[in-house]
Specification:
By secondary structure, the protein is an all-alpha fold. It has one domain (2-172). Helix content is 60%, strand content 0%. The chain is built from nine helices and no strands.
Length: 187
């Protein structure tokens, strides 16, 4: 599942004037240049959308992603966007993206947002992707989160880490083993 989501999301989806698919992974770490480029693209597209009376949600979401990778606190933007959502699809997309961003840095709250996003997204996810997204969320659920951010990890790195933790659980005979420090996958 991870490999299909590692399509160059930045070029193929984030920098396009299209609806963002619900099954994609949007927390693939961006470098500062990419984040600034995405922020500029988002601002330009928001301005154009507003001039044409169109919804700016998709571009606000891109702005949220860019600001996150520019190391800005995005909690206020998330709350503002939450209050202005038009439908369940937008709420699902916001919850999924916010949860992905948080889990990429192993931040508290990630699991709750991913769970809520998936529940809301179920009617909107294409059937070809449904079970893959569900499996991905099950794998990510084992990742320990906390209040201290770590450097952003890719989906592939998070899935690998979840696999290591799961193997450690099996070898130790403990269910629900979690290390106390999100930076320490070996406990």
């Amino acid at each position: 599942m991870a490999e299909t989501n590692l399509i160059p999301v930045f070029e193929n989806f984030l920098l396009q004037d299209e609806l963002l698919p619900l099954h994609m992974w949007y927390a693939q770490p961006l470098d500062q240049g990419q984040a600034k480029q995405l922020l500029e693209f988002s601002a330009k597209m928001q301005k154009s959308a507003l001039m044409h009376g169109k919804d700016v949600f998709e571009f606000k979401l891109r702005e949220l992603i860019a600001r996150f990778f520019l190391n800005k606190n995005i909690q206020l933007e998330y709350q503002t966007m939450s209050a202005l959502l038009k439908d369940d699809r937008q709420r699902a997309q916001l919850e999924l993206v916010y949860g992905q961003l948080l889990i990429s840095r192993k931040l508290a709250g990630a699991h709750e947002h991913l769970k809520q996003g998936f529940l809301l997204a179920r009617p909107f996810i294409e059937s070809a992707f449904y079970f893959g997204v569900m499996k991905q969320h099950e794998q990510l659920a084992i990742i320990k989160t906390g209040n201290t951010a770590v450097p952003a990890l890719s989906l592939e790195d998070l899935i690998t880490e979840a696999g290591v933790i799961r193997k450690l659980e099996k070898s130790s005979g403990k269910r629900g083993y979690h290390c106390s420090d999100p930076e320490d996958t070996l406990g």
